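Morning - magnesium ion inputs below, output right after.
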Amino acid sequence: MKQRTLAIIKPDAVKKNVVGEIIAAITQAGFTVLNVKMTRLSPAQAGNFYEVHKERGFYGELCEFMASGAIVPIALEKENAIVDFRALIGSTDPAEAAEGTIRRSFASSKGENAIHGSDSAENAANEIAFFFAESEIVANRS
Ligand code: IDP
Ligand code: MG
């Protein structure tokens, strides 16, 4: 079944000027881009996006990092998009990520790890809606 997932190219990767290379790796892996934008979050908006992590010790650092520069949210579609995209990006810590994964290739550290990927269909729907109106996605697919 076709699924949607949300990717975010994080501020470290935008600053490294590798947005194009990362999108190429995503589309070469068979994902369809439904919409893509460049934007910047305030710390409060980053806090809302990562609210599930608010009890974790790195929450403040994570919100500050995600608000530290431009980000590129990308709504994606593919068969088994959630699991396949998590495999494509690799482990949270790039030192543990498999060779050829996006985090292994482009991430700097466990915190500044180049890319986000939704971890469930329910979270993907909420995360896509955080950045994109459904009408924007439908319009771009026709
Ligand atoms: P994930 O992005 O691989 O799903 P999560 O555990 O959900 O990893 O953590 C969300 C994000 O929080 C990570 O991608 C990373 O940017 C940041 N993060 C996770 N663990 C740490 C840590 O130990 N120190 C600093 N930042 C972290
Ligand atoms: Mg996660």
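Note: Residues 53, 58, 61-62, 92, 110-111, 113, 116, 119 surround inosine-5'-diphosphate (ligand 1) (CB under 6 Å).

O.
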